[in-house]
Design a protein that fits this description.
This protein is of the alpha+beta class. It has helices at 10-29, 41-66, 72-84, 118-133, 140-154, 160-180; strands at residues 34-36, 92-101, 107-116. It is globular, with a radius of gyration of 19 Å. The two termini are 18 Å apart.
């Protein structure tokens, strides 16, 4: 977890939140929500979701604090979205483990299911857009394009697995670039 910046740059905070939201979306798209007893992929996805999801809102809240002196009407959309978001900021809202036993009572299989916070993800993306609208002087499309060009210059990654790696790498690179700009 990145410590809160005492003098946050709202543009940087919004871009970081957007990059982390892209990573969370990749987690959502990376597979089903059920795993068998020998499948650790779901456990890894749950752990990563629980780590990255709160960070989205941490950076959005940081940007909101930095924009507090702006026109309240410009921040009203964000405030409405934030008011609905669960205070605990859960990336996974429910995990259930069911053990299947044979007639002797021995566990023969185990199924784990997880409910990822898809509605919260959609609120987070909408909150990013709401804060971007509160700063019309910033060329958000240009910033995103520059970030993607910088990633493209680093090398081409193709294929589904590599695409997910590229999204994760993009989030890390964006974070590092933005933190270095301090």
């Amino acid at each position: 977890m990145i410590a809160a910046d005492p003098n946050p740059n709202p543009t940087r905070s919004i871009r970081i939140a957007a990059a982390i939201a892209e990573r969370y979306e990749a987690i959502l798209r990376s597979g089903g929500h059920t795993a068998g007893s020998n499948d650790s992929e779901l456990a890894l996805r749950i752990g990563e979701a629980q780590q990255v999801y709160p960070e989205i809102w941490t950076h959005l809240d940081e940007a909101r604090r930095a924009l507090a002196d702006r026109d309240p009407a410009a921040l009203a959309d964000f405030d409405r979205l934030r008011a609905v978001e669960h205070p605990a900021k859960l990336g996974v809202t429910d995990v259930e483990i069911v053990q299947h036993v044979d007639y002797r009572g021995r566990v023969v299989a185990e199924t784990k299911t997880a409910a990822f916070n898809i509605q919260g993800f959609h609120r987070a993306v909408a909150a990013v857009r709401a804060l971007e609208r509160a700063m019309p002087e910033v060329d958000w499309v240009g910033l995103a394009r520059a970030e993607h060009q910088e990633l493209a210059a680093a090398g081409s990654l193709t294929g589904k697995r590599n695409r997910n790696l590229a999204i994760g790498a993009a989030a890390v690179v964006i974070l590092l670039l933005l933190l270095r700009a301090l």
